[in-house]
Amino acid sequence: MSFTLRAPVAKLSAKANVAESVNVRPAQRVAAKAPVAASAQLGRREMFSFIATGAALVATKANAIEIIDFKDANSKGFQEIYEARELENGTYNEKGGVPQRFALKRLSGDETKGRITESLDRLSTKIQPSIDVEAYPLAQNELRRQLGYLRFDIRTLAADDKSIAGPGKDLVLAVEDLDLALRFKNQDKANALYQKVLIKADALSSAL
């Protein structure tokens, strides 16, 4: 009697078969879907790039600077509203189309001299009482208000009469020095400089 020996055949258990299935199949799915995901990602990048380019073009048009020539408007007194005020106009509270005091009106030569005289009168009567009681902000407000008129009106007259320029400049400088003393609340210095302002104001008045 003869016997044939055969090598034992290894059998995988049910758990091993399941593990093998789990390890292989997801990798196959990932490999199959990888080209599709890469294509979708590339499409999104192109779309966002197109949107960003369009937004940049729109922003460039929105921020475009338009250059406007105001030479003609300025030659008619457009910028003058920031310095002088029309004394004959009403108070700031009036409405309904009535001219306000902050609306400029260019005056004639005689009217300009009258406005300068009015400013000089206010300088001689409205400043000293505020200095005496150390109400420096009130003195500064009145001083600067009249300085705005004076600068504009002196420049207007000096364009035709050069003799106004010198006394006018001296007065403006004296007023600026007084304003600085008021800012630092130095009463003694303010009183001394105020007397200088009055002297320069008389010199300008004589030159009108």
Automatic annotation (TrEMBL):
Q: Which Pfam families match?
A: PsbQ (PF05757)
UniProt entry tagged with the keyword Thylakoid: yes
Q: Name one GO biological process term.
A: photosynthesis
Q: Name one GO molecular function term.
A: calcium ion binding
Q: Does the keyword Membrane apply?
A: yes
Q: What GO cellular component term, any one, is given?
A: extrinsic component of membrane
Keywords tagged on the record:
Membrane, Thylakoid
Places the protein is found = Membrane
Gene3D superfamilies linked to this entry: Oxygen-evolving enhancer protein 3 (PsbQ), four-helix up-down bundle
Q: What name does UniProt use for this protein?
A: Uncharacterized protein
